[in-house]
Structure to design on (368 residues):
């Protein structure tokens, strides 16, 4: 294992703890390899009937991938950057298809790569401290780690909205959207862990049943951060069903004076701060993913990521990470000045990869 991934087996439960709290448990390649090695070893281990994923520290489970690494690697001319994503996407698939109950404690910050190792879980537990998002368009990326797949499965047009804007949501919205299953007060998680560790579990279904019963016994949280998505769903569905991003922006601008005017103004302003290219690509990604299996969507994402880090070809990833995490000037120089300047050809090249090739790095994922 690595110093940033701790594992142990207690009560026939395999506990995985991400232990890089100073970096919000951001995933490095070594962490991804350690996670993969662990769950593969436990796949056939009769001493493990279920897996618990959790993060060390008070701030959250996982804020995503180690984006500084991507910037440094590309700038240094590294040729193995894509191998990080090959390994990460294979891990995402392994989580989603795991034969034993895999339970994610989605406490605190859960974004990007943290969503990728959580959304495929058999049980996704959020707390009043959960802050969840797929914020990639802010840094010139797109919602990868299977983001197109799980966002596209949300009701109405919530997937398009959350994907292109990168909006941060709390527990109530996560439950409403279908990005979480149950809510547990943060203060009860130590007791939940102890119950699991001290149990004598016959099988994984017994674990799932006991966790659900434990959560159901907890008091309703009076200080739960209130959600907005339920009230906004009609407006989200109306706007984000429009044909393309220029039409969506125009419709948002036209909401002045309506009951959704404040939300529309906030949303349009947020979109204009994102990478124009990547909000357009993300809209297309989520819509295409509705007809794809998780395996095929992940294969498409690998080609999309190659485009993102293709500096010569206008990839936005290096510039976005520079502005947000390296120089921190928050003034990215995007390839396009406006969303309206992005062409169909600009978008199309992100989807020109051949996912069916026998030598595709993710060919072995299967079709599920």
């Amino acid at each position: 294992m690595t110093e940033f991934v701790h594992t142990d087996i207690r009560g026939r439960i395999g506990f995985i703890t991400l232990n890089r709290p100073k970096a919000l448990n951001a995933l490095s390649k070594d962490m991804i390899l350690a996670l993969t090695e662990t769950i593969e070893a436990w796949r056939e281990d009769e001493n493990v009937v279920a897996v618990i994923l959790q993060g060390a520290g008070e701030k959250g489970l996982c804020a995503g991938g180690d984006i500084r690494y991507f910037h440094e690697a590309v700038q240094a001319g590294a040729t193995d950057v894509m191998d990080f994503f090959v390994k990460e996407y294979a891990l995402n698939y392994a989580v989603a298809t795991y034969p034993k109950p895999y339970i994610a404690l989605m406490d605190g910050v859960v974004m990007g790569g943290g969503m990728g190792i959580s959304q495929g879980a058999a049980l996704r537990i959020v707390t009043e401290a959960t802050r969840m998002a797929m914020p990639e368009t802010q840094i010139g990326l797109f919602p990868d780690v299977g983001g197109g797949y799980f966002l596209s499965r949300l009701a109405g047009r919530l997937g398009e909205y959350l994907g292109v804007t990168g909006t941060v949501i709390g527990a109530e919205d996560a439950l409403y959207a279908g990005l979480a299953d149950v809510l547990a007060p943060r203060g009860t998680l130590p007791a939940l862990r102890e119950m699991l560790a001290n149990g004598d579990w016959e099988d994984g279904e017994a674990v799932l049943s006991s966790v659900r019963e434990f959560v159901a016994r907890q008091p309703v949280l009076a200080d739960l951060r209130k959600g907005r998505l339920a009230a906004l769903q009609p407006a989200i569905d109306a706007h984000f069903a429009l044909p393309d991003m220029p039409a969506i922006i125009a419709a948002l601008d036209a909401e002045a004076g309506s009951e959704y005017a404040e939300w529309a103004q906030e949303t349009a302003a947020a979109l204009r701060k994102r990478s124009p290219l990547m909000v357009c690509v993300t809209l297309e990604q989520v819509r295409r993913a509705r007809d794809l299996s998780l395996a095929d969507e992940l294969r498409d994402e690998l080609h999309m990521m190659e485009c993102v880090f293709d500096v010569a070809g206008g990839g936005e990833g290096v510039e976005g990470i520079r502005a947000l995490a390296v120089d921190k000037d928050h003034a990215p120089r995007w390839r396009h000045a406006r969303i309206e300047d992005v062409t169909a050809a600009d978008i199309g090249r992100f989807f020109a990869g051949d996912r069916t090739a026998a030598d595709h790095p993710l060919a072995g994922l299967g079709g599920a």
